Structures are given as C-alpha cells and as structure tokens.
From TrEMBL:
GO cellular component terms listed in the entry, alphabetical order: plasma membrane
GO molecular function annotations of the record: chloride channel activity
PANTHER family listed in its UniProt record: ANOCTAMIN, ANOCTAMIN-5
TM stretches of this protein: 49-70
Protein name: Anoctamin
Similarity comment: Belongs to the anoctamin family.
Amino acid sequence: MAVLQRAGGKKEEGGFIALEKYRDYRYPPEHDWQYSHNTRFWHILAAKLAFIIIMEHVVFAVKFFVAWMISDVPTDVKARIKRERYLIQEYLHHYEVEKLRVQLSQHSGHSSTEPATAPTVTVETHNIYSECL
C-alpha cells in the first residue's frame, strides 16, 4: 500500500503520516471552546429542523385538501338522503294536518252526551323505492 501525502500531513522518518481531517462544525483544538459546536452548526441544524417542520405542514395541508375534495358520501346517495328527508317531512306534515282536521271536526260536531269514538286518520302515504330515488 502506498501512503499518499495529504494536506496537513506530518513528516516522519519512514514517510508521511497523514492527519485525517473531516468537515465538522466544531471549534478547533486551539480554541477556548475546543471541540464544542460552533454557531454554523446550530444554524444548519435550525435550518434542517425548519425544513422538516415546513414540509410536514405542507404534506398535511395537501392531505386535508385532497380529503376535502374527495367526498366520503357519493352525490347520488346524498340526493337520496335529501329526498327521503323531504318525503318524511311531507308525510309528517300531512299526518299532523289530518289529525288536527279530525280533532276540529270532533269538537265542532260532538255533543257532550255521545261517547267519543277513536278517530280514523287516513294519510296519503308515499312509497319509497330506492330504484325511483
């Protein structure tokens, strides 16, 4: 194996001993705060964390936008539900109107000596078929 001279290598009797240098964001050995992280390290770390947090928020925003755009319930099912609600409200309205009509007719034509008979209410019913909704 050949030993290559590198920048900053020390010369010894038998050849060169290379000093391995790597890029690190620490203070050098001669500094008062030797081997502790310098301000460039903290700036880069803050930038990395900010990038991660921003990208996380972008991903969540896109996810919520796509979830909002794609409905959980198909539109034809929503239309059927609205139609069923409308038919139920219409049925209840007709039932209440007919019930009041029967009660008013009993009070106006009813004498105090006759026994009360049970009213018969006939209400127009709607057959709800899923095929016609």
